[in-house]
């Protein structure tokens, strides 16, 4: 726990440094660059910090944190890196953008802040800077409490800017390969491809949050966010536990609308994914928990169809998501167009 | 003479006014009635036969055929019941609206025109007409080539006269109950709730289909239909093999836009269903064919995720779809709002 705290403090210090850099650099180019240092890789766009990939022996899993909009607004929650007055302190295991799931051969890789079992970064396989787009390829292992590696995770993250004004995007292509005779994923809602967004984007208890064509709600750390999905559903209540091709949330921060969209690619496992999207700040896609979502839905005419997805040694599953970080209000049609381009 | 003529004209005006009033107010109060005779049950809305449920020992499965729009335009193919010049003569097992699947314990109940195997109507359990809606309840047995009953099918079909005179709805609630130790559904595209379109409504080539703000295309037995789905996809080739909450088609017949939308209810097995939708005239929702659809899609990054639905004796699965038969051009938003109403409706 001590080591984990130290590591977190390091990240917090880095966050502070980045904040200073943002104020001083001019946005002139779209060059995507990676700067590697001890247990983190900073991602800059046009020389300005966008996000950092952080990992290490002390972290339960790798994270991208913080994640910013093109204008530099932080879209991920600071806690537990930094506590802020009025901020949420629930779910310590939710940080930045992360990829994990409960339970894999009984191990809770998601609901975990410990390193007794761990999703451990093993290697950075490729780093490619580029104009408008750059990619980072990493390898991790999902290791159980007996130090047996159950899964190998190969991940390619492509960071892009400039495809659309006011939008940055990260395309995640992830393969999980079984390293042991049998790997069983239980159908559990706790997963899988997630962002823990800033408290300012939470869905408010009162008021409707940001809606295109309506006056902006007053900014608040209690939240002004509102989800919308490819099904035309709105709010966490409407989105949670259903399949959808994409889900987005937008709210007010620093006087302007900012938001996040997650698109699921048709090549991805059990597409279109189910969504574990909560009003308190967790926004997650989970294609593995089919049975757990069906068990909890309002429609009980059929028994849940459990997946209990199982991989034999050497078999793999492919997951693909695109995250769009945006400044300015987005409509259903705009995100739908982004999805169509992504699916091509 | 002059006086009496005036009187008659006055009466005519009153009658006309009355007709208009009736026309306006009758919408939700049109009677739904069932008339049974031999191996058929006519379904009447406002006195007109909109469809007929046909069954019998010599039929491979029951069908609703023909299916007519509210003003009487036939939407389903006549073949193989009647041949039509220039019409299609493929897949004689596609008749009207029907419910079937390949393969159940190896028997092809869908791709079948024989009576062995057979989906055999065994009883009409209830026929309840009424103002605005009426329900027909039937029991059928899915019998294999050896005469064994694999499944009991309990179907509750509710006809809803609709909020206006240009449309009506058919709500299908179907339960399949295993009557054998193990009943196994293979993942095969051939299934389950199907609508075989009139050749006139086959998918149009090019742009010869009804579009908002454009003149109606010229009617043709080659088809003026166009599919569209809840995903915002158009054309059979873009809808086929995907999951969607609903699919619709509209085309031109008798100088009118006519069509039907098929909505899948979230209560239904493996919702939202995959779609087996073909340009030549088949529109079918198939939640059981999952692996077969995934096997054929252009994305092959994952091994096929087979469903292989299996029921043990007395276990059941539930299917629920609504078919809306309409006249007049419909938009994506209009069908979507019908879908949202359907989800909220309880049964």
From the alpha-carbon coordinates, what is the Rg of chain A to the nearest angstrom?
Answer: 19 Å
State the shape of chain B: globular
How many DSSP H or I helices of chain B? 4
Q: Please, how many domains of chain A?
A: 1
Could you spell the SSE succession of chain B in H and E letters? HEEEEEEEEEEEEEHEEEEHEEH
Q: How far from one another are the termini of chain B? A: 61 Å
One letter per element, helices H and strands E, the order of chain A comes to HEEEEEEEEEEEEEHEEEEHEEH
Question: What is the domain tally of chain B?
Answer: 1
Molecular structure report:
The complex is a heterodimer of chains A (344) and B (347). With 344 residues, chain A is mainly beta. Chain A has one domain (91-343). In chain A, 14% of the residues lie in helices and 39% in strands. Chain A has helices spanning 2-24, 235-239, 290-296, 332-343, and strands spanning 31-37, 40-45, 48-54, 63-67, 97-101, 118-128, 130-131, 133-143, 149-161, 167-178, 182-184, 191-196, 226-229, 246-253, 256-264, 274-277, 282-286, 310-312, 316-327. In chain A, the strands form four sheets. In chain A, strands 6-8-9-10-19-15-14-13 form an eight-stranded antiparallel β-sheet. The longest helix of chain A is centred in the N-terminal third of the chain and has 23 residues, at 2-24. Chain A is globular. The termini of chain A are far apart. Mean pLDDT of chain A is 92; it is low at 1-6 and 15-27. With 347 residues, chain B is mainly beta. Chain B has one domain (2-344): Beta-galactosidase, Chain A, domain 5. Chain B has four helices and 19 strands. Chain B has helices at residues 2-25, 236-239, 290-296, 332-344, and strands at residues 31-37, 40-45, 48-54, 63-67, 97-101, 118-128, 130-131, 133-143, 149-160, 167-178, 182-184, 191-196, 226-229, 246-253, 256-264, 274-278, 282-286, 310-312, 316-327. In chain B, strands 6-8-9-10-19-15-14-13 form an eight-stranded antiparallel β-sheet, with helices on one face. The longest helix of chain B has 24 residues, at 2-25. The model of chain B is unreliable at 1-27 (pLDDT under 50). At the A-B interface, β19 of A face β19 of B.
């Amino acid at each position: 726990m001590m080591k984990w705290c130290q590591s977190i403090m390091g990240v917090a210090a880095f966050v502070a440094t980045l904040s200073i850099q943002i104020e001083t650099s001019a946005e002139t180019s779209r060059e995507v660059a990676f700067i590697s240092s001890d247990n983190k890789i900073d991602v800059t766009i046009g020389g300005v910090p966008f996000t950092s990939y952080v990992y290490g022996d002390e972290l339960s899993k790798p994270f991208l944190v913080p994640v910013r909009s093109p204008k530099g607004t932080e879209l991920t929650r600071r806690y537990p890196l930094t506590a802020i007055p009025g901020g949420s302190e629930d779910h310590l295991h939710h940080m930045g953008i992360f990829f994990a799931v409960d339970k894999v051969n009984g191990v809770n890789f998601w609901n975990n802040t410990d390193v007794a079992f761990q999703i451990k970064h093993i290697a950075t396989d490729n780093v490619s800077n580029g104009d408008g787009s750059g990619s980072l390829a990493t390898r991790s292992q999902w290791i159980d409490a007996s130090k047996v590696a159950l899964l190998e995770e190969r991940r390619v993250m492509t960071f892009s800017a400039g495809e659309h004004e006011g939008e940055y995007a990260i395309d995640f292509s992830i393969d999980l390969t079984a390293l042991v005779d049998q790997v069983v994923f239980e159908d559990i809602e706790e997963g899988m491809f997630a962002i823990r967004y800033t408290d300012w984007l939470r869905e408010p208890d009162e008021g409707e949050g940001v809606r295109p064509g309506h006056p902006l709600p007053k900014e608040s750390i209690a939240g002004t966010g509102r989800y919308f999905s490819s099904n035309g559903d709105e709010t966490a209540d409407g989105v949670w536990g259903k399949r959808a091709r994409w889900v987005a949330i937008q709210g007010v921060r620093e006087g302007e609308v900012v938001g996040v969209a997650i698109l699921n690619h048709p090549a991805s496992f059990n597409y279109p994914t189910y969504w574990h999207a909560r009003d308190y700040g967790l926004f997650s896609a989970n294609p593995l928990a089919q049975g757990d979502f069906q068990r909890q839905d309002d429609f009980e005419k059929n028994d849940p169809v459990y997946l209990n997805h199982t991989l034999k040694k050497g078999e793999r599953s492919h997951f693909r998501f695109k995250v769009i970080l945006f400044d300015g209000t987005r409509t259903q049609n705009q995100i739908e167009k982004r999805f169509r381009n992504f699916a091509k | 003479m002059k006086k009496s003529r005036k009187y008659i004209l006055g009466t005519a005006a009153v009658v006309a006014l009355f007709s208009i009033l009736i026309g306006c107010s009758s919408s939700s109060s049109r009677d739904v009635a069932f008339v049974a005779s031999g191996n058929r049950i006519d379904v009447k809305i406002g006195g007109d036969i909109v469809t007929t449920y046909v069954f019998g020992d010599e039929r491979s499965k029951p069908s609703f055929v023909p299916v007519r729009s509210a003003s009487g335009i036939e939407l389903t193919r006549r073949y193989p019941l009647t041949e039509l010049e220039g019409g299609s003569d493929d897949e004689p097992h596609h008749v009207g609206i029907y419910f079937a699947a390949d393969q159940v314990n190896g028997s092809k109940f869908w791709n079948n025109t024989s009576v062995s195997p057979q989906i055999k109507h065994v009883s009409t359990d209830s026929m309840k007409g009424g103002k605005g809606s009426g329900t027909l309840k039937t029991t059928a047995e899915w019998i294999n080539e050896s005469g064994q009953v694999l499944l009991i099918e309990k179907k509750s079909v509710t006809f809803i006269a609709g909020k206006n005179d240009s449309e009506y709805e058919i709500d299908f609630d179907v339960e399949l109950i295993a009557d054998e130790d193990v009943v196994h559904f293979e993942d095969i595209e051939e299934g389950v709730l199907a609508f075989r379109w009139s050749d006139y409504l086959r998918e149009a080539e090019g742009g010869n289909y009804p579009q908002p703000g454009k003149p109606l295309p010229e009617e043709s037995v080659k088809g003026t239909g166009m599919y569209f789905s809840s995903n915002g996809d158009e054309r059979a080739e873009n809808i086929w093999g995907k999951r969607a909450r609903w699919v619709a088609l509209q085309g031109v017949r008798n100088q009118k836009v006519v069509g039907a939308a098929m909505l899948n209810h979230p209560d239904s097995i493996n919702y939202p269903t995959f779609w087996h939708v073909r340009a030549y005239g088949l529109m079918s929702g198939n939640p059981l064919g999952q692996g077969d659809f995934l096997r054929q899609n252009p994305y092959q990054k994952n091994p096929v995720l087979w469903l292989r639905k299996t029921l043990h004796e007395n276990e059941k699965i539930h299917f629920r779809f609504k078919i809306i038969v309409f006249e007049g051009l419909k938009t994506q938003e209009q069908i979507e709002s019908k879908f949202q109403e359907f989800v909220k409706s309880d049964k």
